[in-house]
Amino acid sequence: MEILRLVLLFVHILGFAALIGGLLVQARDSEKAVNGAMRDGAGTAFLTGLLLVGVLEAGDGDVNHAKLGVKFVVALVILVLVMANTRKQRIPQGLYLGLLALSILNVALAVFWSPAHT
Ligand code: HEM
Known about the structure:
Distance between the termini: 15 Å
Strand content: under 5%
Helix content: over 70%
Largest sheet: none
Order of helices and strands: HHHH
Number of strands: 0
Oligomer: single chain
Bound molecules: protoporphyrin IX containing FE
């Protein structure tokens, strides 16, 4: 189970990197859009996050449900906003900044809110 958790965490972090990378690469562009990296990253981070929770629940230790519940809601909002706008030519600056803020918020929750499991 430990190797599965680590593989999922590895892919989870690649997904997070694609999402943040896809956002940051257009930081200086005057027109923003949902790009492939954002779409695939949001989907990958979300799916592997859920699978990680499954692996943690199957283990012996305690699972931090409050932390994971908040992360889930934040990630779901990101995923819905990204998917709803994938076909649009451009997205408003406010939506871009909102997606960036929510993505960074989820990294902060992952890192600063004490462990997802013990
Ligand atoms: C935009 C969405 C997300 C981002 C940017 C993100 C980011 C991260 C990062 C950077 C880590 C590594 C730091 C750490 O291990 O504490 C992490 C771990 C983790 N994430 Fe996420 N995450 C996202 C969505 C989710 C979702 C939806 C879930 C499930 C509800 C989830 C569950 C987890 C779990 C369980 C771990 C810890 C794994 C372990 O320690 O075994 N994540 N996340």
